[in-house]
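Translate sequence into structure tokens.
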Amino acid sequence: VMPLKQTLDKYLLSVEPLLTSEEMIKTRKVVEEFGKPGGIGEQLQQKLMERGKTHDNWLLDWWNEVAYLGYRDSVVINVTPAIAYPQQRFNSQEQYIQNAAKFMFAGLKIFHLIQVESLPPDVYRGKPYCMWQYPRLYG
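Result follows.
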């Protein structure tokens, strides 16, 4: 569990580009009040710290419930990772089946690499992404 001050500082950095100067001033005041010693933020932080002692990942159960199980919109379109696949034109059913087989083979190849933990990490701006969630992509 990240320290409360660090969380609040990151929050302010993340909302600043989205707010007007007036909104940012109000937001800073709210965050300051929330983060006061003995205040509600400190109380909630303590509850998270306690949860962190009994769970490998304090957020995972809540994330799964809210983002996946409790989400009422179409999960396939709005939440599930997808592959952008260009439109294909086939001259025969055989070509269609061959293409589907190639697509499935590629997916199974990635599945296998994930299972044996051999898939090279995704990298963004020279830094590798955490791939802890990858095994869940295939259910």
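Note: The chain has a mean pLDDT of 88.
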